[in-house]
Amino acid sequence: MADAAPRTRAMIDAATRPVMPAHIKLRHDAGRGRWLILAPERVFDPDDIAVEVLKLCDGQRTVADIAGVLAKEYNAPMEEISADITAMLQDLADKGVVKT
Amino acid sequence: MSDENTTHVHVKETAMPLGAREPTEESTAEVEQVDIACARAPVGLLAELTHRCPLQCPYCSNPLELERVNTELTTEEWQKVMRQAAGLGILQIHLSGGEPTIRRDLEDIVKTAADAGLYTNLITAAVLLTRERLEKLKEAGLDHVQISIQDVDVNAENADRIAGYKGGSAKKKEVAGWVRELGMPLTINAPIHRANIKSVEAIINYAVELGADRVEIAHVQYYAWALKNRAALMPTREEFMASAKLVEKAREKLKGVIVIDAVVPDYYAKYPKPCMGGWGRGIINVTPSGRVLPCHAAESIAGLEFDNVRDKPLGDIWLNGQAFQKYRGTDWMKEPCRSCPRREIDYGGCRCQAFALTGDAANTDPACSLSPLHAEWAKVAEIESHEAAPEFIYRRPGGATPKTSAKKAPAATDA
Q1: Residues with Cβ < 8 Å from B70, sequence gap 6 or more?
Q2: A90: which chain B residues are within 8 Å (Cβ-Cβ)?
Q3: For residue B7, what pLDDT is reported?
Q4: B31, A44: Cβ pair inside 8 Å?
Q5: The whole model's pTM is what?
Q6: How far are the Cα atoms of B167, B170, B205, B214, B234 from residue B155, in angstroms, in the given order?
Q7: Does B95 lie at the interface with A, CB-CB under 8 angstroms?
Q8: Smallest Cα distance from A52 to chain B, Å
Q9: Within 10 Å of residue B139's Cβ, how many Cβ atoms?
Q10: Which of B34, B187, B214 lies at the smallest CB-CB distance from A32?
Q11: Mutation choice for B interface testing from A7, A12, A34, A43 by most B CBs within 10 A
Q12: What residue spans of B350-414 are helical by DSSP H?
């Protein structure tokens, strides 16, 4: 079954292909005019960059791919973006919001 | 929790759907603060579908007066509540009890909630579940399962004694296995007290072994049944400190493996917890008969009027109900709360506890070290936890009334 293996910390690096597990829901909340992440007994409040990153986390793209998209879009240095979103995704992985 | 906040924080944890955990820096932001129309919309709804339960845990959070089956809301009434909740801006539904799986219409209620876009969380003792039922619940759209345990599997005898239910521990383990096989996220909730506090580390490891994504080390909160059983449940300060250290160590060691949430016993805290994240602020509670409460213990406070979903829409009750208005915000506060810099951090603690121990719910919760009652109140824990533990008064209809004999009268002497 799916639960056999991974009881180790998922580490995020440039080659990781992160994805949100099915039970984590990125939802637009019309009433509050913002995006929210719904998780077991948690609600997270992502900023625009986090929303964009999470939408790109499809299990296919690597963190490097995602950083590339954002670097182009925001016309920002790749290394800076890459370091920023790697740290963010590591934090989210530790909270169970993304998996690898 | 401070190590990774050096650069930009892109994702903040917001209001806590079920409210009693310790606030951390990143969890103090609130969802509600942005939009005016929904400025005061609750985040979570605790739906107590029934007070019936096969277990008899002596720390049950249900009121001493349990509601009867013939007063319970119908399927249609609960479905209406779910739709109204979604319309009101509620994000998460916690299906609780008693034992929610006793309701044969649980699937229908889950389906309506899921269809309305609500995040559905089943809070269960698990002993009545079959694999088939769990599959049906999953198909209906159930997002998350939380199973309570009393101790680890190797201490099954102790676990079953605490719950007053033979075979419960083994059954829970089996059901936890099905939850994982079906690919659903699992939380293990372990209420902690003197009869299992030595197992804290083992419980965390057991939750990992069961495949849980999250474990709650939830020190018992001393209201209702737990207050009645306080002398049988209160751990010593030393035991508590040792368990808190173990939790901290486990958090570091198991980072990224399992999320560990801890609820501390406020008898040993310096400041009270922000109960329900603030009264009438983020959480709404509906009892089996449809009474709408700001917290599940609110009926213990005299002078509050509770509306019923049978009579009024949920949104109206939330915004205008007497019970919600009474202690919402900070205007009702007295000193030392009123001028306290923490007033919007902990909201003066728990209104129910303030009422139970001081006779006035607007007083500072004696859990706060600034309360004039604090020292005396904390001493009760110190004394009781060092005495021999009395027998449990098990949670069952009418169970709270008979025995009053050898029990010491709870604290509140002079105010």
Answers
A1: none
A2: 4
A3: 52
A4: no
A5: 0.89
A6: 12, 10, 14, 21, 20
A7: no
A8: 11
A9: 13
A10: B34
A11: A43
A12: 351-358, 374-386
Q: Which of A7, A27, A37, A42 to mutate to test the interface with B (most CBs of B within 10 A)?
A: A42
The two three-digit tokens of residue B120, written as one number: 């559905």
Round to whole Å and give the CA distance between B53 and B348: 33
pLDDT average, residue stretch B115-131 = 97
Where does B250-300 show beta strands of DSSP type E?
259-263, 283-286, 292-293
Query: Is B12 an 8 Å CB contact of chain A?
Result: yes
- Residues of B within 8 A of A42 (CB-CB) are 13, 16-17
> Under DSSP, is residue B259 helix (H, G, I), strand (E, B) or coil?
strand
b/e burial code for range A20-49 (CB count within 10 A of at least 16 → b):
beebbebeebebbebbbbbbbbbbbbbbeb
Tokens for B27, please give them: 């969890």
Whether B32 and chain A come into contact, CB under 8 Å, resolves to yes
Cis bond before residue A96 (omega within 30° of 0): no
Q: What angle, 0 to 180 degrees and rounded to 10, lies between the N-to-C axes of helices A78-94 and A48-56?
A: 80
Report which secondary-structure segment, H or E, holds B76.
helix B75-88
Alpha-carbon distances, residue B92 vs A1, B88, B116, B137 (angstroms):
28, 12, 11, 16
**Chain B contacts of A29, Cβ < 8 Å?**
31, 89, 91
Distance in angstroms (rounded) separating the CA atoms of residues B314 and B338: 30
Report the SS3 class of residue B284.
strand
Nearest-angstrom CA–CA distance, B366 and B375: 8
d(CA B272, CA B26): 19
The separation between CA A15 and the C-alpha centre of its own chain, rounded to angstroms, equals 14
Reference B190, options B146, B230, B156, B232; nearest CA is: B146
Tokens of B55: 């277990």
Query: Quick one: pLDDT at residue B16?
Result: 54
Question: pLDDT for B126-174, tens place per residue?
Answer: 999 999 999 999 999 999 999 999 999 999 999 999 999 999 999 999 9
Chain A interface residues (partner B, CB cutoff 8 A): 1-3, 7-11, 21-23, 25, 27, 29, 31-34, 36-38, 40-47, 49-50, 53, 83-84, 87-88, 90-97
Which 3 state secondary structure label does DSSP give B132?
helix
